[in-house]
Amino acid sequence: MRATVVVPVLKSRSRGGQTESASTRTPESRLEEATGLAQAIDLDVVNGQIVPVNDPRPATLLGTGKIEEIKALLNERDSGLVIVDHPLTPVQQRNLEKEWNAKVIDRTGLILEIFGRRASTKEGTLQVDLAHLNYQKGRLVRSWTHLERQRGGGGFMGGPGETQIEADRRLLQDRIIKLERELEQVVRTRQLHRAKRRKVPHPIVALVGYTNAGKSTLFNRITGAGVLAEDMLFATLDPTLRRMKLPHGRTVILSDTVGFISDLPTHLVAAFRATLEEVLEADLILHVRDMSDVDNQAQSSDVMRILGDLGIDEAEAGKRLIEVWNKIDRLEPEVHDAMVQKATGASNVVAVSAVSGEGVDALMEEISRRLSGVMTETTIRLPVDKLALLPWLYDHAIVDGREDNEDGSITLDLRLSETEATELERRIGNGPKPQREDWE
Prior knowledge:
Blueprint: E1 2-10, E2 13-15, E3 18-20, H1 27-39, E4 44-53, H2 64-77, E5 81-84, H3 90-100, E6 103-106, H4 107-118, H5 122-139, H6 164-199, E7 204-209, H7 215-223, E8 240-245, E9 251-256, H8 266-271, H9 273-281, E10 284-290, H10 296-310, H11 314-320, E11 321-326, H12 333-345, E12 349-351, H13 360-372, E13 375-382, H14 390-396, E14 398-404, E15 410-417, H15 418-427, E16 435-439
Parallel strand pairs: 1-4, 1-5, 5-6, 7-9, 7-10, 10-11, 11-12
Antiparallel strand pairs: 2-3, 8-9, 13-15, 13-16, 14-15
């Protein structure tokens, strides 16, 4: 379908003596992003336009002159769909459709459409359907009162019965309740999976970031997985988890989550909360940023705002967040070198290229260091009756040396965190303990 993208730019407003900008994003980057969103669902964008809005109209958002100008462009380009990169009220959407004689969808509707195309698992489909129904519920405009029943209730003087719009709302609400129940069951299943993972306490590392920041490419680079990774907004939607080994042999679980975006619809934040709980549970969060994007700072602010909405405040994020400055391969040599030097001097930043692999080894080392905490060094000798502990030790400790003794016992030089040292104490406490030749 041929589509036209309209980006309304609301002027700054003054509140309490202070001037507030309506958006932190540049109009050009908003137009580029909105065009990318439209192309992500195979729309043919024939025109894109930035429209300054000095005084938003309650009925149409845009002024009369601009509406007429866009109408002429629609007829000229034979465009039957208009994407308005701004939230529209139901009345504004209906009035614009009448004026332009074309289908109109706002930013929320477009993102919902993309999510509907991308969802592939049962949970993802349920979440998108639920968000879509909640969105539709607010879109029912009272435009067909002629379908009102003439009489309702008991008695001769009964008033008007249930209108068509009320019937539609009731049907939507019934469907919403059914989806919420189905989603609750899926959430319970996910919680059971989390409980099983806690029994084998591998640390969880979650990837977050603005959509198209390169999370899935980095995920594939680190784990060797085959997750879809394309230069496309919201190329992946459903969360993916994989086990991986850090440089010193420790096993962790890496989680790739849905990409964030500015002005993410509240329906989606609520619907995808179960999925995003993987981020809340994570021991370490990798915030992947596209440093080749001129708006990367504004994108970073949007991501941190959503993390805050999920319950991760700045203080907590500072303790368990690493910024991954991705796509440095796209930068000019001078900018590239300066950025790598700046990242090297920062305590919680690693510069990488998920495509070329540059900096990925340093990132893995930093993940290992952050998850290790205070390391305990020890040398233990496992007798024959305790050799069943070997797989656990190789999964949870760093084995620096091993010696197989003649009596069948094994001597191991280990480094492990305080938590794992305590767990090792517990595991070797049942029955004869291994001899400890050096325990710090």
